[in-house]
Amino acid sequence: MHASINDPELRSFAPASAESHFPIQNLPYGVFRPKGGGEPRVGVAIGEQVLDLALLEAKRLLDVPALTGREVFNRSSLNAFMALGKDAWSQVRARISELLRDDTPMLRDNAALREKAFLKQSDVAMLPPIEIGDYTDFYSSRYHAANVGSLFRDPESALPPNWLHLPIAYHGRASSVVLSGTDIRRPLGQTMPEGAKTPVFGPSRAFDFELEMGYIVGTGNELGSAISVEQAADHVFGMVLVNDWSARDIQRWEYAPLGPFLSKNLGTSISPWVVTMEALAPFAASGCEQEPTPLPYLRSPGNPTYDVNLEVWLQPAEGEPRRISASNLRHMYWNIRQQIAHHTVGGCNLQTGDLLATGTISGPTPDSLGCLLEITRGGREPLQLGDGVARRFLDDGDRITLTGWAQGDGYRVGFGECTGRVLPAREQL
Amino acid sequence: MHASINDPELRSFAPASAESHFPIQNLPYGVFRPKGGGEPRVGVAIGEQVLDLALLEAKRLLDVPALTGREVFNRSSLNAFMALGKDAWSQVRARISELLRDDTPMLRDNAALREKAFLKQSDVAMLPPIEIGDYTDFYSSRYHAANVGSLFRDPESALPPNWLHLPIAYHGRASSVVLSGTDIRRPLGQTMPEGAKTPVFGPSRAFDFELEMGYIVGTGNELGSAISVEQAADHVFGMVLVNDWSARDIQRWEYAPLGPFLSKNLGTSISPWVVTMEALAPFAASGCEQEPTPLPYLRSPGNPTYDVNLEVWLQPAEGEPRRISASNLRHMYWNIRQQIAHHTVGGCNLQTGDLLATGTISGPTPDSLGCLLEITRGGREPLQLGDGVARRFLDDGDRITLTGWAQGDGYRVGFGECTGRVLPAREQL
């Protein structure tokens, strides 16, 4: 990576305001289709525009050594590009940055090419960026785990005995991962109401969001091998925002002993732009102190996490969006490298396109909690939204929007948003 | 389906003994590649041969209405064929049966075509039959759940409170599902030995098999919709044998509260031949009595399960295979239809190629237990294999082979075998 690619002083001829999530320092990848018609293809967000990489590739403007002769952007997912590995990611990003710089005439001064290569984001439909193989969800915010343990189990033993020794995770459902903007139907399911003797069936009455981030495996490992904590970062292509919608009443009844199932496989939303780990590099940060010291295979020195501001906004069917939480990726106890080292230490194979998520990213303060279960203390203390509007859990019609960005000096490396609206449960048979 | 297709009297000109798993009444699908070279393609097992369906399709011998104009067998998985749905499965099976009957001259009397269309099973390499989307594992033998609960938790409350009300399941890891014959490496991992104060890292000392069956989703449902218990059978293409290798010491330490993770994502073996639900239809059987009566969405009248004999054989590195368990699919408390209805009732979408497994199929007697954890009571009572050989859990070099068949009058509808050998753990860094 050329050192200057992340330089705060870098400017593009393609405009991006100081508040834009997509200045030249970011260059996140997504898959789009022009609303006017055409095949899905890969693009990069710049300001309020998308740069069509399939077009640049066809015109041989992306002929970096790692790509030559390969067609990876005229595709409906990022998988082919990701599978090429870290060197290719680096070379391509450097080349795109170069093409977009205000001192590079190639695109800047070619009006006919610019006309074709740039589309307004409002003129394209975003598509799922990744063909997801497996989806794993971790449980790596200590604040979140302690809060949930205290509500679901026992305040005295809120944190499970294994929690400080390993990054707990479960396999999620890949088929129900959907793109931001997809409405999510409130699930029907089986629950055991407090005090009841037999379970009942009906719409979830405790439907919740979860503020998470996800990271995408760019290159994997063979079954039976492992990725060490030192190698882990090289395998990660980039990150997205994740809302892991959860039905708490279904979860509470079903989760013992094999973990959450129907409470979480009804839909998981991801944001459309994949922000690369290279773009996040300037925002590397130290994580939480880890005491007890983890076993050697989990020891991760240096600055293993990132300073990414995260927000949750709730918009009722009638009314304006209100910010209901402000957290940060730094609040994770277990970092991404540790999660990958743990995931593979027994020989499990990760593959290009796998989605790994952090788990709910709650911070230490009441205004930094990552789900309503925590904010309302299990529904006992309604969240006041103003104008007499309050929520214990989500109502039909509520829209949840996650957003996140790393704050640079005069610019932002942002994730855009991850949004979804709650649809009423389907009619019962 | 033509009534006669499953007729016990039906005979093929392609030989199959009374003990063969693959007589004309079975016709299971698999994907193979001739050892002499060539592309992967779909075939059907008949006796000790494979019938090359890609060849028959190319020669237009499979022109049933549901297939016409489609190429679905010149592929490296069954997914394209499965996606066509139940009518297509039925038409194709009837047509293959017709072509193989001893009173159909088409293939029988065409030596040149027979020479090309039939291969010895010993002359082909089997490949994974399915492109698996998601993998779900249930926990549906009451005997197994009670035995495990008693060992992992508390004999007094062995069966979790929700167990009799819903078919418990967890999402498994799809990437680590491998074909029978693949060796499985003993995992390294974190465990908390009894009496220890801090966890240790090393090779699993309680490596186990699990006797299961898996079924393959042929056609799925949209996210937000459900498949009712009445419709469920129409969505299932067929079944395979499954060995869900498990590291019990890792499982015990990691599983609370989000379920098994590294203890089970190190490798899951499946058998190569997919036996269709049509071929199993004559072996439909009543399942276990269900008390309390399940909620309406889980009520499944009729004969909702199948009488399939199952066996587990253990062969030490030096020595002959010994049968260590004999169970039956009928011992499942929750049947396949109930599992599918539950899996989708909250709106989770199943997709063509998803693998759903039953969980360990233990029966009521000591000789019908589906894993060593149960057979040896958590390692406390070693299994005597004769000649002074005993096992608490699996040793390096041990081979586990599962087999299964439905017994007809003078013929078997069988699954062949699902086999794998334990490799030593990889060297620690």
Structure report:
2 copies of one chain form a homodimer. Chain A is an alpha+beta fold and 429 residues long. Chain A has helices at 53-58, 79-82, 86-100, 105-108, 111-117, 142-152, 248-254, 277-280, 336-345, 372-375; strands at 29-34, 41-46, 49-52, 118-120, 124-127, 135-138, 169-172, 177-179, 184-185, 188-191, 200-203, 207-208, 211-217, 236-243, 246-247, 268-270, 275-276, 284-285, 305-306, 309-315, 322-328, 355-357, 383-386, 389-391, 399-407, 412-423. In chain A, the strands form 7 sheets. In chain A, strands 6, 7, 8, 13, 14, 16, 17 and 22 form an 8-stranded mixed beta sheet that branches. A 5-stranded antiparallel beta sheet of chain A has the order 4-3-2-1-5. The longest helix of chain A has 15 residues, at 86-100. The radius of gyration of chain A is 22 Å and the shape is globular. The interface between A and B is large, with 70 and 71 residues.
